[in-house]
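Hey, I was hoping to borrow your eyes for a little while. I've been staring at a protein lately and its backbone has me curious. You're getting the sequence in one-letter code plus the fold written as tokens. Would you mind checking whether the tokens look sensible for this chain? Here's the protein in full, and shout if anything looks odd to you:
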Amino acid sequence: MENDLLKSTSTPIYYYDIALLRRTIESLLSAASIDHRFKVHYAVKANTRAEILAIISAAGLGADCVSGGEIKAALNAGFPADKIVFAGVGKTDKEIKLGLSHDIECFNVESMPELEVINRLAAKMGTTANIAIRVNPEIDAHTHKYITTGLSENKFGIPMSQLDETVDLALSLPNIRLKGLHFHIGSQLTVLDSYRLLCERANEIIEHFRSRGVEFEIINVGGGLGIDYDNPDAHPIPDFRSYFQLFKQHLKIKPSQQVHFELGRAIVAQCGSLLTRVLYIKECPTRRFAIVDAGMTDLIRPALYQARHAIQLTGDDITGRPMMRYDVVGPICESSDVFDTDVELPELRRGDILAIRSAGAYGEIMASQYNMRPLPGAILD
């Protein structure tokens, strides 16, 4: 982004590098082509900006949705209904009817009561619902407690102890077509060994049901592949090749079965940055604060997950400035409104613009209007 444009830009604002997004998608599709049975769905919750959804849809990916609003956004962006899957533990009747009316590819079902409700609503509409049963595989993904989803204490999925009963129920319901199994063990996974454990558990479950005469068309292994928040310029695109190679090597499926992936962060995170202006430099006895005009309302991940994003000073007039340490904080009336502490940056001045990197996923979409602040806008370049 040109320096003159930066200076005239109102902040806080999201900046999206569309060329990087396209390169990331190309790398993803190339890596996934290792096996024709691999099908990738974009996890819409990561970023729902219409222009970004349109680019991802045009590339041929499916959509993984967790609300009726996301289903509508996916349809509006051009995702075919038969490439839309709908997950979530609390689907409302209205949302289920929306999915049924568009004959979406699959409902990922997370409880037996939900399964019965979908069957009843499908019967009233004179249709059949395609479903996959989300399994809680009881695997520790070793990620932040707020984004782990595969442990027995998590609210997601069917416990292993109830899986046979749930499959039997699905097979007995007249307006349900059981298509597959769904897994998701957590987000921001940077150690692929957790996925190897998932493959082993999935293989055990697949073989168990095969011995009962039950075959699944789809094995959905979820998403969660992490990115490099510390060094976004060194690793702008995740190692998709190793990711897909692991599943090809360790997941035992038949030629007729499909493997579905639900990647969100890995696709859009690195293409987005939050731009924010320095308002004040506040010197205290033990800390030096850089107070900026963006806050936790614009990017909540540091406050919510204790996440760290690389923070960089932008512009072409920073050469020769001495390096100093700052706590970069926002204007919100909350002590948690901190982007990072003890960050080494060139000496900051009022009006400088900082780029908070790797914010393309779970950034703009999670923004709020707390303190009556306006929602941030966006620049796509």
About this structure: Residues 141-152 have pLDDT under 50 and may be disordered.
